[in-house]
Each structure stands twice: as structure tokens, then as C-alpha cells.
Amino acid sequence: MATANLSVRVDAELKKDVENCLDEIGMSMSTAINIYLRQIAKRRAIPFAVTANPVPNDETSAAIEEGERIACDPHVRGYRDMNSLIRDLNS
């Protein structure tokens, strides 16, 4: 089988992180990319779901806003651990 070179630009930190991960499993970057490309050829599709970030619905948006208000309210007590929260709930 003849081979061809493939040149791809990626974020330097991403490359380093992936190289470290692949080193842990004993795989080269070239092998990992070849596996990925073979899966695309075999499936005729990207081998995982590619989706946009979901837009929260009205209920979720309201919950996010409420959480942000609570987090910024100096009158709301915060807890650093579950035991403190449970102790206050039981008192």
C-alpha cells in the first residue's frame, strides 16, 4: 500500500495533550489518525456524533439565571462541603 503525507495544523497545547494520552496507551499520533481516517472510510461518516452546543430551553435558561442570582447574593449562605450543608438542613 502506497502512503501519502498529511499535514494538519492544530493547537500546540491540544497536540501535546493528545500525544501524552496516546503515549499512555502506547500509540503513535500517526496510528491514531490512521484509525480515525479508516473509520471515516468504513462508515462513510465521522465515527462519533458531531453536534452544535445545545441552546438551553426557557426552563433551563431560567434555572441558570436563578443560579447566577443566588451565587451573587451576599445574603445567601454558601457551603464548602456537603456535611455543613446537611448539618444546616437538619437543624
Relevant terms:
91 residues, 0% strand, 58% helix, mainly alpha, Arc Repressor Mutant, 4 helices
Would you identify the CATH architecture? Orthogonal Bundle
Number of helices: 4
Low-confidence residue ranges: none
CATH level-3 fold name: Arc Repressor Mutant
N-to-C terminal Cα separation, in Å? 73 Å
Architecture overview:
The chain contains 4 helices and no strands. Helix content is 58%, strand content 0%. With 91 residues, the chain is an all-alpha fold. The termini are far apart.
Please outline the helices and strands:
Elements: H1 12-25, H2 29-43, H3 58-72, H4 82-90
Write a brief caption for the model.
With 91 residues, the protein is an all-alpha fold. The chain has helices at 12-25, 29-43, 58-72, 82-90.
